[in-house]
Amino acid sequence: MLASKIAETMNILGWDNDDNIVVEVGGTVVSGIHQGEEYNKKWATPYGVRKYNNDAFIVIKNLDRSPVISSQPNPDLKAHHVTQKEGNQVS
């Protein structure tokens, strides 16, 4: 049933079976703090341990259909703090 819903959604989105599709899990946390030997195991998590929240979710990405284009500066726009004074820029 789940596979058929995913296939139906892929069809609605116009995705192909040959597209580079990845599945990721969101709503997780990884401990980034090194705990001392006497840490409280009830409240603290050892360094590098991943916990999945009760409201974790699945993200399905089509990497072939999501181009990443970096923003480009617009040469027609001037910074708000730069003014023109007799042809010279004054900041």
Give the helices and strands, then pairings:
Layout: H1 2-13, E1 21-30, E2 50-62, E3 83-85, E4 88-90
Antiparallel strand pairs: 1-2, 3-4
Written overview of the protein:
By secondary structure, the protein is an alpha+beta fold. It has a domain at 19-68. Helices cover 13% and strands 32% of the residues. It has one helix spanning 2-13; strands spanning 21-30, 50-62, 83-85, 88-90.
Structure summarized in a few sentences:
With 91 residues, the protein is α+β, with helices and mostly antiparallel strands. The chain has 1 helix and 4 strands; from the N terminus they run αββββ. The termini are far apart.
Overall shape: it is: flat
| Element-by-element helix/strand order | HEEEE
Number of helices: 1
Overall average residue pLDDT: 83
Order of adjacent strands in the largest pleated sheet: 1-2
Please give the largest β-sheet: 2 strands, antiparallel
Quantity of strands, as a count? 4
Based on CA atoms alone, the radius of gyration comes out at 25 Å
Which regions have little confidence, pLDDT < 50, spanning 5+ residues?
A: none
Strand content of the residues, in percent?
A: 25-35%
First-last Cα distance? 63 Å
Question: Roughly how much helix do the residues carry, as a percent range?
Answer: 10-25%
Q: Provide the structure class.
A: alpha+beta
